[in-house]
Specification:
This is 3-isopropylmalate dehydrogenase. It is found in: Cytoplasm. This protein is an alpha/beta fold. Helices cover 40% and strands 20% of the residues. It has two domains: 1-102 and 262-349, Isopropylmalate Dehydrogenase, CATH 3.40.718; 117-256, Isopropylmalate Dehydrogenase (3-Layer(aba) Sandwich). It is built from eleven helices and twelve strands. The strands form two sheets. A ten-stranded mixed sheet has the order 2-1-3-12-11-4-5-10-8-9, with helices on both faces. The chain has a two-stranded antiparallel ribbon with strand order 6-7.
């Protein structure tokens, strides 16, 4: 709690733009007694193209020495053949989530006053997606046979371990128990993905017995996307696999005011490795370098970082300032730094 040696990976595209504002907010609220250092690391598509390094073993070892990581976004020009195959997405972002055992990918979605949801009658939307972060179809378990021929076969086999499913489901139950609605929804596709789906449901059923006050629900992922649009207030805590969680959290962001507001934390709950906080969005090449990116998602990720680092009051101050700014925002277009300035101006002392 009294030490925060932060690693900053601003990344590509709008990453450095939003992280600049997020770091300003962090440094404005951090209690003065904290032993704070920040170290910037250049990793991302740009660094890879310039140096050939995606993430070396030495760099990974250096990152492990930090208490937390703040990341902007990584990913370059999608048309650049040198970046094909998700070289930085897999080799940097997913590598960090896996190597630092970020098995909880926490992605809150809340409609707060002043935010224009595209839904006409959204209701009281306040839910958290607990996305599994180290397994599933992201595990890299696949390959191509007869590559480049008309008979090529590509597989991408989802990996689900009892250990991996149990620990993320347990985290989700703990979270649900602390929230007023005390509801947990498993989102999967157990009518088709029967082996993994059965495992997830069995684990949920087993752990549910330890949390009798948590109401348990199940939705197939396709139906979950319906309800996220037609009745999103039915959700409290959603627990789901890595790929379903990726998809439904972009949808969750969209209904809760847009991808520019959606914060996330890649958490290693036991603190064995540094947790990593990042906006849900990517490097947004379409708006990069124009000062148009909304830094609110990155700033909200700082609030999650502070909370996870034991600085609850500082986290609350950031959240309150973000809410006040959202409530006053209206539809006047503002630049990245203007939004940062406005949020900093609203920080309570
Ligand atoms: P994206 O999230 O970068 O962009 C999708 C849309 O949302 C774009 O129109 C973009 O302009 C808009 N947008 C995103 N963030 C915004 C913000 N803060 N303010 C305003 N508008 C915002 O998704 P994409 O286009 O699918 O991906 C672009 C690149 O980013 C790809 O290389 C992808 O692999 C990578 N990516 C990285 C991360 C990450 O580092 N965590 C996450 C997602 C995508
Ligand atoms: C996200 C991103 C990443 C993911 C990509 C860039 C690997 O979309 O953080 O949501 O799929 O997890
Ligand atoms: Mn995503």
């Amino acid at each position: 709690t009294d030490r925060l040696h932060l690693a900053i990976i601003a990344g590509d595209g709008i990453g450095p733009e939003v992280i600049g504002q997020a770091v300003r907010v962090l440094e404005a609220v951090l209690p003065s007694g904290v032993d704070y250092t920040s170290t910037e690391y250049p990793f991302g598509a740009g660094h890879y193209l310039a140096t050939g390094e995606v993430l070396s073993d030495e760099s990974l070892a250096a990152l492990k020495q930090h208490d937390a990581i703040l990341l902007g976004a990584v990913g370059g020009d999608p048309a650049d053949p040198r970046l094909a195959g998700g070289i930085v997405e897999r080799g940097l972002l997913l590598k960090l989530r896996f190597a630092l055992d970020h098995y909880v990918n926490l992605r809150p979605a809340e409609i707060v006053p002043g935010v224009a949801s595209p839904l006409a009658q959204p209701g009281d939307v306040d839910f958290v997606v607990v996305r599994e972060g180290t397994e599933g179809p992201y595990a890299g378990n696949g390959g191509v046979l007869r590559d480049g021929t008309p008979h090529a076969i590509a597989t991408e086999v989802s990996v689900n371990t009892e250990y991996g499913v149990e620990r993320v489901v347990r985290f989700a139950f703990e979270l649900a128990q602390r929230r007023p609605r005390k509801k947990l929804t498993l989102v999967h596709k157990k009518n088709v993905l029967v082996f993994a789906g059965f495992m997830w449901q069995r684990v949920v059923d087993r752990i549910a017995a330890e949390y009798p006050d948590v109401v348990v629900d199940y939705l197939h992922v396709d139906a979950a996307t319906i309800f996220m649009v037609t009745d999103p207030s039915r959700f409290d805590v959603i627990v789901t696999d890595n790929l379903f969680g990726d998809i439904i959290t972009d949808l969750a962001a969209a209904i809760a005011g847009g991808i520019g507001l959606a914060a996330s934390g890649n958490i290693n709950p036991a603190g064995e490795f540094p947790s990593m906080f990042e906006p849900v969005h990517g490097s947004a090449p379409d708006i990069a370098g124009q000062g148009k990116a909304d830094p609110t998602a990155a700033i909200g990720s700082v609030a999650l970082l502070l909370e996870q680092s034991g600085h609850r009051d500082a986290a609350d101050r950031v959240r309150a300032a973000v809410r006040a700014d959202l409530d006053a925002r209206g539809d006047v277009a503002r630049s990245t730094s203007e939004i940062g300035d406005a949020i900093i101006a609203r920080l309570s002392t």
